[in-house]
From TrEMBL:
The keyword Cell cycle does not apply. InterPro entries: Aminotrans_3 (IPR005814), Aminotrans_3_PPA_site (IPR049704), Class-III_PLP-dep_AT (IPR050103), PyrdxlP-dep_Trfase (IPR015424), PyrdxlP-dep_Trfase_major (IPR015421), PyrdxlP-dep_Trfase_small (IPR015422). This is Aspartate aminotransferase family protein. The keyword Plastid does not apply. GO terms for biological process: L-arginine biosynthetic process. Belongs to the class-III pyridoxal-phosphate-dependent aminotransferase family. Signal peptide: none annotated. One of its GO terms (molecular function) is pyridoxal phosphate binding. Its cofactor is pyridoxal 5'-phosphate. It comes from Methylobrevis albus. Keywords: Amino-acid biosynthesis, Aminotransferase, Arginine biosynthesis, Pyridoxal phosphate, Transferase. It holds the Pfam family Aminotran_3.
Length: 483
């Protein structure tokens, strides 16, 4: 203890200007906000251009008051059947009771969140669980918050393990791996690339074309990594030909190329297996999960690497901190949510249910396609990861409607999916997802808790809507824009 006599005299601080609280909205204000106010604030502070699309589809007319299981409940108490599923983020549906309970307990016990100083029992348990689920020696786990972050981590671990003499990365046409600057170079979208400067060391191949990959590997020994979605989501639910992944594994082994499997959208049981690559009994060198790993309640993502690959990249004290977890990597409540999510997934047999209900959905959709061949071109998918492709109607549209359709947004002109999605929501209370790369495709990614009655409700609504015929659908959509 310092003797008082040695203390330096402390000057009284000059009077500080008081900090005035700005006119902030409270949580209760936010809850009570009406649609016109929500629209105004979205326009003024989030994304004015995006409102244009929300208005076209009628999404701006819904204020969600609650969400439970397979449904949103809007301001009028109307139930909206969720076949969009947050682009695959809602494997357990909305507000699964076990997820709510696990989170509530964590809060009641006042557990700690930030895991950068001390070890976290929750981060360790989640990493262990993911290693248990993942085949082979996919044992090393990096925790993050978003799919893009997990994919950045995946590409970085692979790049370091491949070494500086093999810097080139192969990726696929119509790929989507995220919008952050690194993985943007592997995302095949002129829109998202938006004229940003990208990493140059990449080689693009058609998705699922093993011969193109063989030629690339044989002609360029500086290729060290190949990055592919196991089932392309943004591309419109596209699968590689059967046997492709086995051939890819063999080719990668032969040429010493590391395979990164992006399972951000198709993983966590969506395809009817935990990982879609399990259909061919192969193991990639690195994989990535996000979306449903957060139990529909939080942001959680994981990169999982084979131990050998991870150790090569970051295995020594000297390299360990090159890409260690970020501030919110392995944050407490998110880990608890993900641990519970994985347990629920198995306890409730949701992976099998995805395979079962997915097969039923495809069967019903195929019958609808046969009934409406002029409107529906193809149905495809695996598990509850389904694409519904409509015919391009720009050639078949009745002459009288052409001038009216010509006035619409470019994104809607040749594509029925916008019209159908908007009318499914307005007239049947059913929500579906669109596909940026292929405007004719609607994506169906309902929660894996989906039952036959939900598949029937969706298919009955679609069938009824398609029975209006092209003229009825286009006219009803155009009317929805003026009402
Ligand atoms: C296959 C795939 N990879 C990566 C991402 C990026 O995930 P996020 O939007 O969470 O950053 C997505 C998102 O849709 C995705 O579908």
């Amino acid at each position: 203890m310092l003797d008082r006599a040695y203390r330096l005299p402390v000057e009284e601080p000059a009077e500080l200007a008081p900090v005035v609280k700005p006119p902030l909205l409270s949580v209760d204000d936010a809850k009570a906000m009406d649609l016109p106010k929500m629209t105004e604030l979205f326009r003024d502070h989030i994304n004015p251009g995006q409102l244009h699309f929300m208005k076209l589809l009628g999404f701006n007319r819904v204020k969600v008051e609650r969400a439970e299981g397979m449904y949103y409940i809007d301001q009028n108490g109307r139930k909206i059947l969720d076949f969009f599923g947050g682009f695959g983020s809602l494997a357990l549906g909305h507000n699964h009771p076990r997820i709510l309970a696990a989170r509530q307990k964590f809060q009641d016990e006042q557990r700690h969140e930030i895991a950068i100083a001390f070890l976290s029992q929750y981060a360790s348990a989640l990493a262990y669980n993911l290693a248990q689920i993942s085949p082979g020696d996919l044992d090393m786990v990096f925790l993050g918050s978003t799919g893009s972050e997990a994919m950045e981590a995946a590409v970085k671990v692979a790049e370091r393990a491949a070494g500086p003499k093999r810097p080139k990365i192969v990726y696929a046409e119509n790929s989507f791996h995220g919008k952050t600057k690194g993985v943007l170079s592997l995302t095949d979208s002129p829109l998202y690339r938006g004229e940003f400067r990208l990493v140059g060391d990449t080689v693009k191949v058609p998705f699922g074309d093993i011969e193109a990959i063989r030629r690339a590997f044989e002609s360029d020994p500086t290729i060290g990594v190949i990055v592919l979605e196991t089932i392309q989501g943004g591309g419109g639910i596209i699968q590689a030909p059967e046997g492709f992944w086995k051939q890819l594994r063999a080719l990668c082994d032969k040429h010493g190329v590391l395979w990164v499997a992006d399972e951000v959208q198709c993983g966590v049981g969506r395809s009817g297996k935990f990982y879609a690559f399990e259909y061919e009994n192969v193991v990639p060198d690195v994989t990535a999960l996000a979306k449903s790993l957060g139990g529909g309640k939080t942001a959680m993502a994981a990169m999982i690497a084979r131990r050998e690959v991870y150790m090569k990249a970051y295995g020594s004290p000297k390299t360990a901190m090159i890409h260690a977890q970020a501030t919110f990597g392995g944050i407490g409540e998110a880990c608890v949510t993900a641990i519970e999510t994985l347990n629920v997934l198995y306890d409730e047999n949701l992976i099998e249910n995805s395979a079962k209900q997915g097969a039923y959905l495809l069967q019903r959709l195929e019958a609808i396609r046969q009934k409406h061949p002029k409107l529906v071109k193809e149905v495809r998918g695996r598990g509850l990861f389904v694409g519904l492709e409509f015919q391009d109607f720009s050639q078949t549209l009745p002459m009288v409607l052409k001038p009216m359709v010509a006035m619409l947004d470019d994104k809607l002109k040749g594509s029925l999916s916008g019209f159908i999605g908007a009318l499914l929501l307005r007239d049947y209370g059913v929500l579906v997802a669109f596909t940026e790369y292929n405007r004719n495709v609607i994506r169906l990614e309902p929660p894996l808790i989906c039952e036959a009655e939900h598949v029937d409700a969706f298919c009955d609504a679609l069938d009824d809507l398609l029975s209006r015929g092209i003229t009825g659908i286009v006219k009803d959509f155009l009317m929805s824009q003026v009402n």
